[in-house]
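Most newcomers find our protein records easier to grasp once they have seen one. A record pairs a protein's sequence with a compact description of its fold. An example says more than a description, so a record of this kind follows:
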Amino acid sequence: MAATDAVLYEEKGDGIVLVTLNDPKTRNALGDEIIDGIVAACARINADTSVRCMILTGAGEGFSSGGNVKEMREKKGLFGGAPVDMRRAYQHGIHRIPKALYDLEVPSICAVNGAAIGAGCDTTLMCDIRIAGKKAQFAESFLRVGLVSGDGGAWFLPRVVGLSRAYEMTLTGDVIDADKAERWGIVSKVVEDDKLLDEAMALAKRIAAFPPHSIRLNKRLLRESQGVSLPVALEMASAMQALAQSTEDQNEAVNAMLDKRKPSYKGR
């Protein structure tokens, strides 16, 4: 399966791109083709300044089953070779997903359909916003197969649910249903399964209605401010604010507000 088949890229209008993990026979296990597809989709979006928001979802009954358990048993792929080979396989394989999603310039919404297990769960956490269908499930299930979250989940999970709940999810491998996921802050909203993409699209349209360069700057400022001191965060804020204030679209936003009319943004 080619990366273009394993991950579908659809321009939905209004600056919104829908990216779909498309290997339902493996429950969208994160094999090489899906990894390549996610990375390619993020690079394509970053290069296209007309894109203002991305939605990520899975084809079939679930979002992603994570790693391929059969490959674990057969010692293939990430699970084969000497330790130095496995380390490089992670760095040049599945680690490309968190790097690509972290570096994605536009806001990302994960529409979680069905189960998101192990690395599949972590992939949802790498997105900025998560909406779940009622059948969605989340599990940090690495201990069930004697592993750690080698995909970066130990970095993302505590930032989403807090350290105590991150320990609980990691050290029990318990499955979290959609309602509990909402209570714990894993997802922002739970909706009927058949309304999931409609809800994600409605949210994406609300985001995409703002000036495109300012959207990207706001996304980056929030992300980068989590790992720096306050003085550094303030320096980034002032620099990004100067960039935003130099755009035609920011001037248009102010004029439209004062004129009580709908703004017309040109991405300049």
